[in-house]
Each structure stands twice: as C-alpha cells, then as structure tokens.
User: What shape does this take?
Amino acid sequence: MTEDPRAPSLPNRAELQAARREYLHRGSWSKADIYEVALGSGPIVVKDFAAKSLPIRLIGRLQIARECAAYEALAGVAG
Assistant: This one.
C-alpha cells in the first residue's frame, strides 16, 4: 500500500488515551469500541479492541487486517 501524503499521521496509544473521547458505540464483550477523538490534526474515528480480553484482541487484529485489505482492494474505485 502506498502512503497518501495528505493522510495525517496515526496517533499512538498514549495520544489516544490522553485525548477526549466521544463514544459512538461501546462494543459488547466481543466487539470493538468505536469512538471519536479530537487531535491537533482534527477529529478521527477509532475502532478499538484494547479494552477486550486477549483472545478477542487477537481476533480483532485479524478482522482489522481483513478490513484494511478490502479498503486497499477498493482503492481507485469510484463511488
């Protein structure tokens, strides 16, 4: 995947924890929490498995990897 020079840099865990969060959805025991944080570069939406158990965090990493692959496959598709 080629980096988009217009894309903001990703925040680290400490920056996410220090920022004010507005929860959009608190996931159940097996689902990610979705929240918005306001950072210096503007607001971003975060899909976060950090508060879940270890097995769920590991499965979450696989889910996120599949989502990223799908977005990469769709790059350049209109609509």
